[in-house]
TrEMBL record:
MF terms (GO), sorted A to Z: transmembrane transporter activity
A Pfam short name: MFS_1
Keywords for the protein's UniProt record, in alphabetical order: Cell membrane, Membrane, Transmembrane, Transmembrane helix, Transport
Organism: Ectobacillus ponti
Domain Major facilitator superfamily (MFS) profile: 15-488
Family the UniProt entry places it in: Belongs to the major facilitator superfamily. EmrB family.
The protein's name in its UniProt record: DHA2 family efflux MFS transporter permease subunit
Localization terms from the record: Cell membrane
Main subcellular localisation: membrane
Length: 507
């Protein structure tokens, strides 16, 4: 069906509703786990560098599978893709819920990821073809409101469950809901797709997996292995080479698995760069803040979840507002304002102390989320709006892939920054304390000293990681000044470069 015909028809609200419920469950699952990380570290006896694999491993699978979604969306019906995605997600949730060792838990998470990797690009593509550009910001805003409800209730719900039950109950809670959504999809989704003569290029699939997977695995291993480890720089090098070969192969194919031609559209390329740098800083904050409030401050999981609730609610309710503002004013004003707020609040998080009040943390996090709510959806929508309809599956797949890669790199980078700073400061503080001793300390005193040293060192490490994150967001802020309102390129055969197309592409 052509783009104009699709937009002229009434949007498929039934299909969108089922897809959004499925995506909501996937989002809820992610936010449930963030608060649980310290409890999992203690119960399964793993450190921060290991437990981060529950996040980065999820991103790893997404980074490998999402590039294939452009092919899958063109090849198969919404019904088939949704049912496959929810089946994988449900099986992964079941496996994680019975895990008693970390590898099984990680396996369940990665199986969940294989389902969500299909879910989000599928939903985004349906949204893009269902609404015209002038209404797309508002539609994306409502979509954001529904999905942001998951981060709003997730941390608080997770905190309550962890205080009263084992962390595995988080997965037991999601399992029956996932099964119900799967059954709803089976009964309600009836769309059919004409047979499409398109085949998956397995060499491209292997190169994509090696490229994105190598980069993600290498950066994710850096927190535990160190940047000088052959495992780290070796896999990063292999990933980089494979990715270059993959890109070159895609540019020569008539029907590429992932069309890198989307980057010839300047606003799409710019929106991708802004989103990547934002994700590098955003995902890290999701790990650093729970570690600070629970490990250093001793705040209970439930209270930690309550602390994050106002910020998530602000982000959820701002989503439709920013959608309408985007339709009216475009993305630049929103992005610059939001990023300025995000830089300021992230820098403020680099000044945490052991006495920082609970209220201060809650308000600062809420303001930070307010800033982020003005950036992500408007910038992404602005970039996708410039693409011709035939490139929507490739644009959504590219955005989701790069966001996962950026999130994994940012998380690994800032966890490494935190770990290295913590280790260095622990050595310094230990030497200072030993120099002040006048008598030989008892074993009890030594144990107390070690605890104090690690608390002070970890606090300094977290502050330093937030400081680095603030500078990463500054890059996004600079790029945001170049954002322009876009119009869809109607002639899919012409690529930006000529004056005629440039005039149509941006106002």
């Amino acid at each position: 069906m052509g783009n104009s015909a699709q937009q002229a028809a009434r949007p498929p609200y039934g299909i969108l509703a089922v897809l959004m419920v499925g995506a909501f469950i996937a989002f809820l699952n992610n936010t449930l786990l963030n608060i649980a990380l310290p409890s999992i570290m203690k119960d399964l006896d793993v450190d921060a560098s290991t437990v981060q694999w529950l996040t980065t491993g999820f991103m790893l699978v997404n980074g490998i599978l999402i590039p294939t979604t452009a092919f899958l969306i063109q090849k198969y019906s919404i019904r088939h893709l949704f049912l496959a995605a929810m089946t994988l997600f449900t099986l992964g949730t079941l496996l994680a819920g019975i895990a008693h060792v970390f590898p099984i838990l990680l396996g369940g998470r990665m199986l969940q990821a294989s389902g969500s990797a299909i879910m989000m690009p599928l939903l985004m593509n349906v949204m893009l073809v269902s609404f015209p550009i002038e209404k797309r910001g508002t539609a994306m805003g409502v979509f954001g409101l529904i999905l942001m409800a998951a981060p709003a209730i997730g941390p608080t719900l997770s905190g309550w469950i962890i205080e009263h039950y084992d962390w595995r109950m988080l997965f037991h809670f999601v399992t029956p809901i996932a099964i119900i959504v799967l059954l709803l999809g089976a009964f309600l989704l009836k769309d059919k797709k004409e047979k499409v003569d398109i085949r998956l290029d397995f060499i491209s699939l292997l190169l994509s997996s090696a490229g994105f997977g190598g980069l993600l695995y290498g950066f994710s291993s850096a927190g535990r292995e160190g940047w000088d480890s052959p495992k780290v720089y070796g896999t990063v090098a292999v990933g980089a080479v494979a990715l270059v070969v993959f890109i070159l192969r895609q540019t020569k194919q008539e029907r590429p698995m992932l069309n890198f031609g989307v980057f010839r559209y300047p606003m799409f390329a710019l929106s991708s760069a802004i989103a990547m740098t934002m994700n590098m800083a955003m995902f890290s904050g999701m790990l650093l803040l729970p570690i600070y409030v629970q490990t250093i401050r001793g705040i209970t999981p439930f209270d930690a979840g309550l602390m994050l609730l106002p910020g998530a609610l602000v982000m959820a309710f701002m989503s439709p507002v920013t959608g309408r503002l985007f339709d009216k004013f475009g993305g630049r004003v929103l992005a610059v304002t939001g990023l300025a707020i995000t830089v300021a609040t992230t820098y403020s998080f680099s000044k945490l102390t052991v006495d920082t009040t609970y209220t201060h943390l809650m308000v600062l996090h809420a303001v930070r989320m307010f800033g982020m709510s003005m950036v992500m959806m408007p910038v992404s929508t602005n970039g996708l709006n410039q693409l011709p309809a035939r490139l929507y599956p490739h644009g959504t797949a590219m955005n989701n892939t790069l966001n996962q890669v950026a999130g994994a790199i940012g998380t690994a980078l800032l966890i490494t920054v935190m770990s290295n700073r913590t280790e260095a400061r622990a050595t310094e503080i230990g030497k200072e304390m030993m120099q002040k001793l006048t008598v030989k300390p008892t074993p009890e005193v030594i144990a107390q000293m070690k605890q104090q040293i690690m608390m002070k060192a970890m606090l300094d490490g977290i502050n330093h990681a937030f400081f680095v994150a603030a500078w990463i967001i500054v890059v996004s802020l600079v790029l945001a000044f170049f954002v322009k309102r876009t119009k869809q390129v109607e002639d899919a055969k012409k690529m930006p470069g000529g004056q005629e197309l440039k005039a149509r592409a941006a106002e």
